[in-house]
Design goal:
There is one protein chain. The protein is built from three helices and six strands. By secondary structure, it is of the alpha+beta class. The protein has one domain: S-adenosylmethionine decarboxylase (Dihydrodipicolinate Reductase, domain 2), CATH 3.30.360. The chain has a six-stranded antiparallel beta sheet with strand order 2-3-4-5-1-6, with no helix packed on it. It catalyses: S-adenosyl-L-methionine + H(+) = S-adenosyl 3-(methylsulfanyl)propylamine + CO2. Keywords: Polyamine biosynthesis, Spermidine biosynthesis. GO terms for molecular function: adenosylmethionine decarboxylase activity.
Length: 115
């Protein structure tokens, strides 16, 4: 019986943490015109810097007319005109990027509010 407890304790070391989901819809209090403001205007280099704070990196990327999709080292990120979805797992820290994300979004899109 002691052997199975030891095995269980050994396996616990390899648990990397739960999945985390950050979904944010952005808008503007300034009344941007419909064609203005698009999260997909943010350069990849800026996303890479932001994701370093989260402790993950971009592995691959694809896009269509509606969404930019990123496969990350610790899951995935989806960026559309007004919405960001960041799904991570392991030892990532998605909340660490919130303040810099809000600043980045306002700088590149004019969105200054969250729905």
């Amino acid at each position: 019986m002691a052997d199975s407890k030891d095995d269980c304790a050994e396996n616990v070391q390899f648990f990397e943490g739960v999945e985390k989901l950050l979904e944010i819809w952005f808008t503007s209090s300034k009344g941007l015109k419909q064609h203005q403001g698009d999260l997909r205007q943010i350069p990849r280099q800026k996303w890479e810097s932001l994701l370093k704070m989260v402790r993950c990196e971009i592995i691959s990327f694809c896009r269509n007319d509606q969404v930019d999709a990123y496969v990350l080292s610790e899951s995935s990120m989806f960026v559309s005109k007004r919405r960001l979805i960041l799904k991570t797992c392991g030892t990532t820290t998605p909340l660490q990027c919130l303040e810099p994300l809000l600043e980045l979004v306002e700088e590149y899109t004019g969105f200054d509010d969250v729905e």
